[in-house]
Structures are given as structure tokens and as C-alpha cells.
Design goal:
134 residues, mainly alpha, 4 helices, 0% strand
Length: 134
């Protein structure tokens, strides 16, 4: 009787982890991503603004839904900024020379950040208007 064949090892050791071991490592990778994001000027500015805006959301919001929208819109900007930075890093990893597809991908990432900022601005403007001009 022969033993069943062993499955091949995955290229990424993270894929073989399970349970709390996987969660522990995934948390470490996420924290490393936040540290890497901190070195980006735009993300750092948004994170510092979030330190003021998220607590302000609890004062400004008149219901849990309003607080969630206000705080969530700030966090959305940071999330999209991290994704945009990831796109830019991946493109720069492939090549630093100018290419129309690289420019297109970077421009689209930048546009996503702009749209997230506009959503945040709209939510905060509506909340401020409702609070001070009922």
C-alpha cells in the first residue's frame, strides 16, 4: 500500500496557514501596509485629518447612521489612497519608463481618490449644513 501523493507547496507560505496562525500573520502584513502608507505624503495627510475628523463625526452626527457615514467617508478616502498607492507601486515594479497603459492605470487610481474625496466632502457638507442651518 502506498501513501497518497503530497500536494505541492504553494508559492506563498501564507496560503498554507490556517486559523489563528494565518490571522496573526495577516494582521502583521496589514500593519506593514499601514506603515508603508505612512511614508506616502497624501496618505499621511489624510491620516492626520482622520485623527480630527473621526472624533468630530461623533459630535457632528445626530444618529449612528450619520456618524457611520461621516467617519466611514473619511476612512474610505484612506482606503482608496492605499489602493492607489499599491497600484502605483505595482506599476513602478514592472517598469519606470513611461507607457500609456501605466499612465492610464495611475490616472484611474488618482481619479478613484478624487471621487472618494468628493463623496467625503459631500457627506460632510450635508451634515454641517443640517447641523447649523436646519
Amino acid at each position: 500500500m502506498s501513501l497518497p501523493p503530497t500536494p505541492p507547496h504553494p508559492a506563498n507560505p501564507q496560503k498554507a496557514r490556517t486559523g489563528l496562525h494565518r490571522l496573526w500573520h495577516a494582521t502583521g502584513y496589514s500593519l506593514a501596509g499601514l506603515r508603508a502608507g505612512w511614508h506616502e505624503k497624501a496618505f499621511r495627510q489624510e491620516a492626520i485629518a482622520a485623527l480630527f475628523m473621526v472624533p468630530l463625526a461623533f459630535w457632528l452626527g445626530q444618529s449612528w447612521i450619520e456618524v457611520a457615514l461621516l467617519a466611514g467617508s473619511v476612512l474610505l478616502v484612506m482606503i482608496v489612497e492605499l489602493l492607489n498607492t499599491g497600484i502605483e507601486a505595482a506599476i513602478d515594479r514592472i517598469s519606470l519608463e513611461w507607457h500609456p497603459l501605466a499612465k492610464r492605470a495611475k490616472d484611474m487610481g488618482s481619479a478613484a481618490v478624487l471621487l472618494a474625496l468628493l463623496v467625503c466632502l459631500g457627506i460632510w457638507s450635508a451634515a454641517l449644513y443640517q447641523r447649523f442651518y436646519p
